[in-house]
Specification:
The complex is a heterodimer of chains A (211) and B (144). Chain A is mostly helical. Helix content of chain A is 74%, strand content 0%. In chain B, 41% of the residues lie in helices and 12% in strands. The chains are: A mainly alpha (211), B alpha+beta (144).
């Protein structure tokens, strides 16, 4: 797709039948971004415009994946640094910059999650929290903390689609653009992710109610 | 709980943990303004004075244990410095100390010393000693 030339990604993107409706409507027009990238190539200081335009959405996504302010700041800094280092090789093919940045962010989050054993810790914390808490009735809402734990206790691919779709509101096609896969793949991942989330939520419900 | 209800609740809970963009950006701008008011000692000025000040000041403002590495990225991205952040080195005096002089909002200068033992193996400043002047004279801890 977008970003540094990668024939494999480019092919996957071409096949994905992209619909950029939300991203295209919320971000500057394609021509504007193409012009921006050309200006960055001439003057690196112009990159701050990319930072200003996309910082909020990228940070929000990272924060919903990590649930930690400091970790978010760290990852977002790395995301923009990597983007800045790579933007000289960027070939704009109409895909919004935001999708490219979200992909960099996704890769960086996944890398750090693996390195730090985030999923394992989330599973442990979830189990501890369930055992320590009072029985929960069906009417209790899932709070932000529990949602974050449930999310991080899921496999990485499930985390990606759930946080992008339910957490950030991106469409199937937009997520396909971000992850560099077909919309059908995103749909099936979402289906499996929902099933996994449902199973995890049931476990917590059953444990809390003592069944 | 039905599937729809579960996913609705889950999505709402995820979104409720919202990144307060404006607050953090204001905070970042605040940090940059602080940077503008700081200046390094003559020895420090020989190399990347703004960066040195930025790292020290932001470490101070955000609390101990906050990686200077990532903060360099932030300042780099904001266009404050025009250098590769990973090439930055803190200049040291003969005793291995980094000495920086900061000017506060009222124009009073304070000295900040980062000793070798205050910096961990990753180059992150874990502690520092202040020499305040004016009303804060005698204190060695970071101001609130």
């Amino acid at each position: 797709m977008c970003g540094p030339e990668n024939p494999k990604r480019k092919e996957r993107t071409r096949l994905s039948g992209l619909d950029v409706s939300i991203l295209a409507n919320t971000e500057p027009a394609v021509d504007d971004e193409r012009e921006l990238i050309e200006r960055i190539k001439r003057d690196r200081n112009v990159f701050r415009e990319v930072f200003d335009r996309h910082y909020g959405r990228i940070a929000e996504y990272v924060f919903r994946r990590t649930g930690d302010i400091h970790r978010t700041e760290d990852i977002v800094s790395d995301v923009f640094l990597r983007a800045m280092q790579a933007i000289g090789r960027y070939r704009h093919n109409g895909t919004p910059l935001q999708a490219w940045l979200l992909r960099i962010a996704t890769n960086e989050i996944n890398r750090r999650h693996r390195r730090d054993g985030v999923r394992k810790r989330a599973m442990l914390e979830l189990a501890q929290q369930v055992q320590a808490s009072t029985p929960r009735t069906d009417s209790n809402l899932i709070d932000a903390n529990l949602a974050g734990l449930l999310l991080r206790a899921l496999p990485t691919k499930h985390q990606e689609v759930l946080s992008l779709h339910l957490g950030c509101g991106y469409s199937i096609d937009e997520i396909a653009m971000v992850l560099g896969c077909r919309p059908g793949t995103v749909k099936s991942r979402l289906f499996r992710a929902r099933a996994a989330l449902r199973a995890a939520a049931e476990v917590t419900d059953n444990r809390k109610s003592g069944t | 709980m039905t599937n729809d209800r579960l996913f609705t609740q889950f999505g709402a809970a995820l979104r409720s943990a919202s990144w307060d963009n404006q607050e953090h950006r204001a905070s970042l701008r605040g940090r940059l303004e602080k940077v503008a008011t700081c200046r390094a000692t003559r020895s420090a000025l020989r190399r990347h004075p703004v960066v040195i000040g930025a790292v020290a000041v932001v470490t101070l403002l955000t609390g101990a244990g906050f990686a200077a590495y990532q903060l360099r990225h932030s300042f780099f991205l904001r266009g404050i410095i025009d250098d590769q952040p990973t090439t930055i080195e803190l200049p040291v005096d003969d005793d291995g100390n980094v000495r920086l002089i900061f000017t506060d909002d009222e124009g009073t200068e304070h000295e900040l010393i980062v000793r070798p033992e205050d910096v961990d193996q990753d180059g992150v400043i874990r502690g520092m000693k202040w020499h305040f002047k004016g009303p804060l004279k005698g204190q060695t801890e970071a101001p609130p």
